[in-house]
Amino acid sequence: MRTEQDRAGFPVSPDAASVIGAVDAALSEYLDERGREAADLDPDFGRDLAGALRAFTLGGGKRLRPMLAWWGWTAGGGAPRGPTAEAAVRACAALELLQTFALVHDDVMDGSPLRRGAASVHEAFAAEHRAGAYTGELRRYGEAMAVLTGDLALAWADDLLDAALADLAEHQDARRVWSRVRTEVVAGQFLDIRGQARRDRSEAGALRTDRLKTAAYTAERPLHLGAAMAGASQPTVRALRAYGQDVGVAFQLRDDLRDAYGSPEVTGKQAGEDLARGRNTLLLSSGLRLARERGDEEAEHLLSGVGGGTDPALAARVLDAVGARELVLRRCRELSVRAIGHLAALPIDPDVMKELRRLGEAAARP
Fold it and tell me: What is the SS3 assignment for 114?
């Protein structure tokens, strides 16, 4: 079951909680049905692989993407209840399976041992290999099974969305949005991995990766998907997308700070993973620039070694000392104000406006 810890720093109002409950119910029903189909193919496949997908998807997460898609639907004029609303909820729920795909594969690529306070999917399968005294390489087995879990999540996300959109009149634009978001999340992951390998330390590169890997598929495209399903006007779509871009980047920057300065009990992940891997974030790239501008050669030298064995905790302290932490916090606040400003002229439901404002304000908080 999900806990409030899973939503640390995320505002969940009674209205938002009802959307989360509807999405969870749709996911549970769908995954139960597909799990039975998987078990008919092979009992072990249904229990172990489809079961891992189900447990990961329903066992944690904030449901931010489906909730934003629902708000996009409502802001675009979609019905709040009735058969079309039920179809919209199912379409929104498909975004959570896309999230499962992205996270499971991301953990394999990053070698992350933890996710949501528990063993990541590839680590759990590796533990199964160890406990069963299987033959072959433990690590390859765990990663291969995790890749299959992510692949299955993506396939089922497509299936869930297609079935839901069949019950909605405005489906062609929504399908195009879905096509874009799937490509963008892969492009963002590509830039992230390439940037680490090339030791990119540019602030522009960090923000471009944040825009594609996180902002687009976390906020901008979910809002766009919901609005497209509802047949929203182009001014409404543009305003929601602009809001989503700014809020999405702000939340990624805040997550970068949580990675560097948060505790595993709150984040559910090991502290300093991004710094240990040498991932190019605005925190790191701006810290290097600030160290050079200050003429702080010791700080510059230490930060230049991030990803090559530099202690992440020490790097985090140096980034704080040169002012990078405050710079990122300030950028979050600026993005929050700008995001909320995009909504000013939108003639949308007051309750939805309130929720979007709450989310935008949360993006500014450390």
Answer: strand
Q: What DSSP character marks residue 310?
A: -
Confidence band for 5, pLDDT divided at 50, 70 and 90: very low
Q: Is 85 exposed, middle or buried (0-12, 13-18, 19+ CB in 10 A)?
A: middle
Q: How far is CA 153 from CA 100, 111, 215, in A?
A: 6, 20, 21
Amino acid at 270: Q
4-362 CATH fold: Farnesyl Diphosphate Synthase (1.10.600)
Q: Based on C-alpha coordinates, what's the Rg of the chain?
A: 21
Helix and strand element counts for the chain (H, E) = 18, 2
pLDDT in tens, 114-127: 898 899 999 999 99
Axis-axis angle for helices 14-41, 350-362 (nearest 10):
80
Mean pLDDT in residue range 281-292: 97
